[in-house]
Design goal:
Length: 148
């Protein structure tokens, strides 16, 4: 009986601590030089960043109070939240895996792949590794192309 009471107290404590976790603020960077010096705009009230569709020229910032703010895609280099860094590249944000590397920068991105099976078409997400020479150069799928 004592064990059940002890376990229930522990579970209630775990649930309460999970609900009270601290949300890391977003930091927006408008150039890679700003990221290297860590001088971005910190937005603690930012809830999410929506990139929109391919031909949309704006990125929507959704605040915690429900308001929205639009900024230009060309004006934003990337953002970070906690220890994760994302670069604005093309029509999506790709995660920078090795932002402080001297030789080659490694990125990670998701893509959806559709293939045919005997039960019909299947779609699954696949993790892609991408590479570039530095934080501002073009992104390639191979290290050899990125180093040229």
């Amino acid at each position: 009986m004592k064990i059940l009471a002890y376990l229930s107290i522990v579970l209630v404590g775990l649930v309460f601590s999970a609900c009270q976790r601290e949300v890391q603020p977003y930091v927006l960077y408008y150039s890679s030089a700003q990221f290297k010096t860590q001088q971005g705009d910190t937005l603690a009230s930012l809830k999410t960043i929506k990139n929109g569709i391919i031909f949309n020229k704006n990125i929507t910032l959704v605040m915690r109070d429900g308001s929205r703010k639009e900024i230009s895609k060309e004006g934003l280099w990337g953002y970070s939240q906690g220890d994760k860094v994302y670069r604005n590249y093309g029509d999506r944000f790709i995660r920078v895996v090795t932002p402080y590397s001297d030789s080659t920068i490694k990125y990670m991105a998701d893509r959806s792949v559709t293939f045919w099976t005997s039960n019909g078409n299947r779609t699954m997400n696949q993790v892609m590794l991408l590479y570039s020479k530095d934080l501002d150069s073009k992104v390639y799928t191979s290290v050899k192309k990125a180093k040229r």
